[in-house]
Write a structure and sequence with these properties.
The protein is mostly helical. About 40% of the residues lie in helices and about 10% in strands. The protein has a three-stranded antiparallel β-sheet, with no helix packed on it.
Length: about 230
């Protein structure tokens, strides 16, 4: 159901607006995609752009009534009429046999595209949006065998990073111990500073209950209580 009006080669995108369906395998109709997420923009790779440019240069683009949805199809017969699904499937199986690949369906190409992108390290969210799945869990459930490998790659990346840090630390034995502090390292440095600027009075000190002298023991003046008693 793709029309040339929805193909924008300079911008390297196309818009999925319609879908071609066969009613009772006899009558062809153009309808909207089955999900709302399917009706959206699709990015085009340089290989696909080159194929579409070749197709546009070697085939006749039929023009006619703009209201006729069968006018201006990208993939059609020489007379401009849409291709029957069985015709496309037969041609695809013939090409697959000539290439010596196993017998597959056209929908298997969709799984192939998802497999190539996931194994290449593309994030699962991007793959899910490219496949137009309604939820991320749908993609994760269908391609769980590939996400398991991605999980192993993630923990291996963490292990490799920590191994590099250990190797870097072993090459500098002259570094002082405080460069790799334990969790009480911060408190050990803050406690002497608190004692220097705010010395605490012990209960046995004779001046504990007496007002302090002119020398301030804190960097902030005492707060004056201006609230009146009831």
């Amino acid at each position: 159901g793709l029309h040339w009006a929805d193909v924008h080669l300079p911008e390297q995108v196309l818009y999925v607006r319609y879908a071609l369906s066969a009613v009772n395998n006899t009558r062809l109709v153009i309808t909207t995609p089955k999900t709302r997420a399917s009706k959206n923009w699709v990015a085009l790779s340089p290989r696909v752009i080159k194929a579409l440019e070749h197709h546009a240069a070697t085939t006749r683009i039929h023009t006619g009534d703009p209201s006729d949805l069968f006018t201006g199809l990208v993939f059609c017969r020489p007379d401009g009429q849409p291709l029957r699904p069985q015709t496309v499937l037969d041609r695809f199986r013939k090409r697959a046999k000539e290439a010596g690949v196993p017998r597959i369906t056209l929908h298997d190409l969709r799984h192939l595209a998802a497999t190539l992108t996931l194994t290449a390290g593309i994030p699962l969210t991007i793959v899910s949006k490219t496949l137009r799945h309604s939820t991320l869990s749908t993609t994760a459930n269908i391609y769980s065998h590939l996400t398991h490998q991605a999980a192993h790659d993630a923990v291996n990346a963490i292990d490799q990073t920590l191994t590099q840090i250990d190797a870097r630390s072993s090459r500098h034995p002259h570094w002082p111990p405080w460069l790799r502090p334990h969790r009480d390292h911060t408190n050990q440095h803050h406690n002497p500073l608190r004692a220097l600027y705010s010395p605490a009075l012990t209960p046995t000190s004779p001046s504990a209950s007496q007002p302090q002298g002119t020398h301030a023991t804190t960097t902030r003046p005492p707060h004056r209580n201006t609230r009146k008693k009831a």
